[in-house]
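Backbone shape codes
____________________
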Amino acid sequence: MACMKLGSKTDAFQRQGQAWFCTTGLPSDSVVEVGEMSFHLHKFPLLSRSGVMERLIAEASEGEEKCSICPPDIPGGAKTFELVAKFCYGVKLELTASNVVYLRCAAEHLEMTEEYGEGNLITQTETFLNQVVLRNWKDSLRALQTCDDIIFYADELNITKRCIESLVTKASTDPNLFGWPIMEHGGPMQSPGGSLLWNGISTGARPKNISSDWWYDDASTLSLPLYKRLIAVMESRGIREEIIAGSLTFYAKKYLPGLNRRHGANDSNSSARHGPVALGTPPSEEDQKVLLEEIDKLLPFQKGVVPTKFLFGLLRTAMILRASPSCISNLEKRIGMQLDQATLEDLLMPNFSYSMETLYNVDCVQRILEHFLAMDQITGGASPCSVDDGQIIGSPSLTPITMVAKLIDGYLAEVAPDVNLKLPKFQALAASVPDYSRPLDDGLYRAIDIYLKSHPWLSESDREQLCRLMDCQKLSLEACTHAAQNERLPLRIVVQVLFFEQLQLRTSIAGCFLVSDNLEGSRQLRSGFAGSTEGGWASAVRENQVLKVGMDNMRMRVVELEKECSNMRQEIEKLGRVKGSSTWGNVSKKFGFKLKSQMCSAQEGSVSKQNSGSGKIEKVKHRQGKHKKNSSPDE
């Protein structure tokens, strides 16, 4: 730390208890009371340097040789006045970054101007402050820290502002351009040319490049009011929001212990390299609450600038500390803007309410999802789309909402086992995700299946209402196979799954016929070139023969499937006649889909797995017997 020596006389001050005595050989003729400390001094050295002391001594010395004075509110108290008194006596003392602000404010308060002596304390402290302290990062930081105790006086003299501007200038400058004096904040000593020094001798070695977050740790030592002012000046200077957000993240992690509990060891962001220093005594809950609300106000409100995991940590901590509703709402909006960057672990926030209705805070996730969808509507991301052969057709911004849909489906599967999770709340969250955002409903089907398994007391109508959330046409073959054998699903849904599976297989076989026709047409088109391509045609003929064999096998499987379909139709018609329904159209309406009866005709082809068709039908027949009492001709 830089210093400046003043005075030349040896120290003649001695302390005895709560009193200081000047041992110059002359008896003291004045007593200065500063706080609980008494200074037994002489009038002339004091009044010759300070206008305030001159007036106080003149008022107190009327008719008396010895006077007692009590100067009001000296900045820095007795410790600072001790240095002022030594300066008045010409005793040796050192100006440092730790005491220069106190002395500068005290000198101004006591009117120690050039009128009362050349090279007075105001001039000396101002020179040291401008020419030494403000040119150095560490000294500027230390001087700013001392402003906390006398902030009113420091603001009047613009000392706080000057220190902050000095720090901002150095923080906004690329440290790799200088090496010194910026590197002195903790790195090795360097020469003006940038090479490393060893015992003052240049080694020629160049230091490693410094990242833009080198000042985070130092800035985090400031009190919250000063830190807020530092960040405000940085924003006005146009420093990148990513850098400011990184500093705020570092500051919050240092003083909010709850954030560090969930701080992953594999976090590779720049601030994690420094690692907030663990505090001996963490702040009180009230102080943490105030800090968290201020951090929320300071964070840039822009997508992707603040890590999503950090925002979730702030939100959890805000709920634990009972932060203001506006703070919690702002954090939910921030997360909603970038929900597509979240992970399932982030969403699994415990319910900190006193009621403990559910294990996880489903309402909070619902609000976050609503914020995301509202933002997606504003940005034009919520446009219609379709699913064609597994490919998503829609707007370019559809990828984030598709990721969010997959995330919410995973979240639903995690919270589904909670027996306290009510059906309306589960349905509301599942239905909030737009249909077009799910290319497949496999994830939703899995969540619904887990919920049905964990809530076996649901009525048949509730089960059907819940299953209407998914689109059976958007289930993969694996999901269809599972659903067709799932005894937890209502019978209507099982039959619906089977028929849509047949519809998909018909589409597949139609595509195979189209490929076969294209191969046949291309062979005829190129028949004129047989002389030059005999080897190629021989290969094509073999491939075509293999394809025909495959098609024959497929037709045989189709016939078997059609027989099974016909048997199933007869069984359903019998069931319908028992309940007063005599037509296949009524039965199809009851099962919630519109298909022509010709779908099962033997003239139309469809493809099915050889070992699954008969098993599914037997399952349905068995289920029909079990649910005969529950079925009714509604709709």
Remarks:
- Residues 211 and 408 are 37 Å apart (CA to CA).
- The radius of gyration is 41 Å.
